[in-house]
Amino acid sequence: MTPLFYRDPFFKAQVDALAGQFALEVVRSRPRNGLYLEYNSEGLTLMYADEPKLKGVQVDFVHGRSGYRRKHGGAEAVTKALGIKKGFRPRVLDATAGLGRDAFVIASLGCSVTMVERCAPVAALLSDGLERARLNADLGWVGERLHLIYASSLETLADVASDVDAVYLDPMYPHKKKSAQVKKEMRLFQLLVGDDLDADGLLAAARATHAKRIVVKRPDYAEPLNHEKPQAELKTKNHRFDIYLP
């Protein structure tokens, strides 16, 4: 259980709402060890008490990497992989939402994206990030195009993918990169959720839906999910998009 800490009583309503929606334990004393969520004036952040100098992880669709990709591009590969083109904006199910970065970029291109996340603390971070994004004047489309479902994709994929054009999968995997940004986020996420050991089952579940295309994002060194050869591949500098047909 990852506790949710807050100090200022002004935020009680927001904290209670998150705790109720995602079954989180609320504490009023900052934990002395392990991972915890902290809510303050900047929103919800995942923290690691064992390393207090380590900056926490937050879902921020307005600034940072997501904001840069929205303003300056960087989505060409995922655009091609999902079949986005003039006059066609597929309805996309992101079955492994994580921090929601790819889902946000896909939605910024005009697609309706349903994000599914099964880890309660991560889903809470996503929910908080979406709420703050809706308050930004430049992101008025967020409420219409980005939707979050707190559930296991393995258990709900058949239902939630009934009316989508594409299923997008980006399961957790061990990172080889040593950059500070990747190291920070992946260390916390590995501690929080571990590896997606059931990711092979996600591919089978996705291919059993009526989606016209299944796109799996993989690091360039990784085997295809379930060792199933895709019908097509799209390679970038460090990643590969495996494309499957139903």
From TrEMBL:
Family, as annotated: Belongs to the methyltransferase superfamily. RsmJ family.
Record keyword Methyltransferase present: yes
Name of the protein: Ribosomal RNA small subunit methyltransferase J
Residues where S-adenosyl-L-methionine binds: 101-102, 117-118, 152-153, 170
Organism (species): Celerinatantimonas diazotrophica
Places the protein is found: Cytoplasm
SUPFAM superfamilies listed in its UniProt record: S-adenosyl-L-methionine-dependent methyltransferases (SSF53335)
Job description of the protein: Specifically methylates the guanosine in position 1516 of 16S rRNA.
Pfam families: SAM_MT
EC number(s) stated in the UniProt entry for this protein: 2.1.1.242
Membrane-spanning parts: none
Superkingdom, natural source: Bacteria
Gene3D superfamilies: Vaccinia Virus protein VP39 (3.40.50.150)
Gene Ontology CC, one term: cytoplasm
GO molecular function list: rRNA (guanine-N2-)-methyltransferase activity
